[in-house]
Amino acid sequence: MDLISRIQRHFHDSAQLKLDVVDELAQPIALAASKMVNSLMAEGKILSCGNGGSAADAQHFAAELLNRFEMERPGLAAMALTTDSSTLTSIANDYAYVEIFSKQVRALGHGGDVLLAISTSGNSPNVLTAIEAAHERDMVVVALTGRDGGKIRGLLTENDVLLNVASQSTARVQEVHLVILHCLCDAIDCTLLGVED
Fold first, then answer.
1. Which residue, 49, 123, 146, 177, is most buried by CB atoms nearer than 10 A?
2. With 0-12 CB in 10 A as exposed, 13-18 as middle and 19+ as buried, what is 159?
3. Given its phi and psi angles, is residue 124 left (phi above 0), alpha (psi -120 to 50 degrees) or beta?
């Protein structure tokens, strides 16, 4: 096995997918950022969730908003629903794993808040139930998915935003998701701080 060539192929494939989807995703990313800004300006908050690598992305995004991204600014109201082991395990134990996010959304979410729902397959049952709970609470959903968008695509309303990365590779989808999350952070900061360039 030629590891050097294999590593180079990973870099090239990742870069190519980003270039392939940029024109399709730029407008919906801008729309998602606008909905997040509107929520934050109205004293709302952004809740985020996902499993595995998507859980890490949900936490990464919340940290960039609550602390800072690349510009100095006050912290923004964001919270990952993946971090409290006592809450997660009690819900999974007392009810079902499929409800670990939805019960939190029902308890913490309010009308005008945003749920950032991340699932590379678009089919994660606990993310699907979180979206249903968000709709019950009159929240906006921004969904990051891969492949064909999965079941999440069919759950979204006209008020929601789908950011779908049309690739079968979980690794490549997650790499683009990270760029999307950084674009959202930058767009939120630039809008709130009035950055023109």
1. 49
2. exposed
3. beta
Residue reference for tokens 């800072």: 68
For the chain, what is the mean pLDDT?
97
Neighbour-count burial of 81, counting CB atoms closer than 10 A to its CB (0-12 exposed, 13-18 middle, 19+ buried): buried
Question: CA-CA distances (angstroms) from residue 150 to 17, 93, 162?
Answer: 19, 27, 11
- Which residues neighbour 8 within 8 Å (Cβ) at sequence distance 6 or greater? none
Assign domain 3-193 to a CATH class: alpha beta
Q: What is the pLDDT of residues 26-35, one digit of tens each?
A: 999 999 999 9
For the stretch 76-118, pLDDT in tens is 999 999 999 999 999 999 999 999 999 999 999 999 999 999 9
E strand or H helix that includes residue 192 = helix 170-193
Q: What is the spatial order of strands in the sheet that 114-119 belongs to?
A: 78-80, 46-49, 114-119, 140-146, 161-165
CA distance linking residue 30 with residue 188, whole number of Å: 9
Q: Which amino acid is at 100?
A: I
| Three-state SS at 69 | coil
Domain boundaries, the chain: 3-193
Listed residue (176, 173, 183) closest to 150, CA to CA? 173
